[in-house]
Amino acid sequence: MYKTWDFNGITRVLRQIREEMTENHPIAIVLLQFGGPDSLDAVEPFLLNLFSDPDIFQLPFRKKDGAGGWINQKFQKLFAKNISSRRAPVIRKKYAEIGGKSPIVEKTNEQVEALQKYFDRNHPELNATVRLAARYWNPLTTATMQSLIQDGIHDAILLPLYPQYSSVNAGSSFNEWNRQAKLLGANFNERQVREYFRHPKYIRSINARIDEALTLFDKPDNVYLLFSAHGTPLDLVKRGDPYSDQIRETMELVMSQRGHDKKYVLSFQSKVGPKKWLSPSTTDTISNLGQMGVADLLVIPIAFVSDHIETLHELNIEARETADHAGIRNFRVTEGLNDHPLFIECLADIAVQEIRALKHE
To answer: N or C: which end of the chain has fewer CB within 10 A?
Structure first.
């Protein structure tokens, strides 16, 4: 007689064996972030790394070498060296005005620590270790990856600190991770989180920061909300990049949760180079709101989860001057999400879901 095999039962047993074998193995939750210069001396090399990124700054031409390969990389480095040296003095001055370094270094480390404490307290059985991999400054992706290899960690959840996906934020970080893995011969069992702009706790955390800031106005009911997001070139949008649509949806989800209690508008900041970018610009929008008679304005940095130069200088200093000239009497910028408990819970929820999915693959 032929024996009947219970294949479903065998599958369950094999899955249980695998889970038991990996139960005590550490798993890394790798937060992906741009990073920032940790001193004034680091500004130029930081900019060099930034402008060397072909995912962000694509040269308008390509040239073949004698062997038939593309040599764009050489021109990219020359371009990056030239523009970073020219822009460094201006950018150094801005960093000097906000403390001599990027606050994103400390703010991101606080997020790492808060998320680690959350897992140690609520999910010690997962043996999770939270690490940071920065794209353009320390700790760089290759250093973080080497530390994982040294610690014998083979499972990783790549969790970008960019809730809305673009090829120039999470896309660039994923590409760098894949490049370094190939160079180091690393083979991680990993899952990459693409986006999470609809996550309820993310939306609630933005509204929590808005509510905190509204208490600082004498007449909160009169406050106009300006959502300011980092812009991107229009040609990126035309190629199908979803970032701008996801930004708009995030804003609408925030306002829907608020019951559309205030007037609001979306603008874009941080334009670099001669290309056409998403519009309207934050500067123009603030000027227009002043002409409309808006006196109380709250700016929400909708695409940023950590305070850095684009919130503390571009918005809190430069945009404030624009608002003063436009006649806006009460101007405030919400604090970044940073280590707000709701945002940390959002990251934790996503990570737990991905860890469970990884273990069942």
So the answer is: N
- Sign of the dihedral through C-alpha 349, 350, 355, 356: positive
Q: For the whole model, what pTM was predicted?
A: 0.90
CB atoms within 10 A of CB 296: 18
* Burial class (CB within 10 angstroms; exposed 0-12, middle 13-18, buried 19+) of 312: buried
Question: Could you give the strand order of the β-sheet that contains 330-333, starting from the edge strand earlier in sequence?
Answer: 264-269, 224-230, 296-301, 330-333
- Which two structure tokens, joined as six digits, stand for 155? 């499972």
Q: Which fold has domain 200-333?
A: Rossmann fold (3.40.50)
Where in the sequence of the chain do the CATH 3.40.50.1400 domains occur?
Answer: 200-333
Are 81 and 20 in contact, with CB atoms under 8 Å apart?
no
Chain position carrying tokens 């062997």: 67
Sheet holding 27-33, edge to edge: 128-134, 27-33, 155-160, 189-192
Tens of pLDDT, residue by residue over 87-111, are 999 999 999 999 999 999 899 999 9
Element (H, E) at 178: helix 170-184
Of 170, 285, 278, nearest in space to 224 by CA = 285
Chain segment 327-341, per-residue pLDDT in tens:
999 999 999 999 999
Rounded to whole angstroms, how far apart are CA atoms 122 and 116? 10
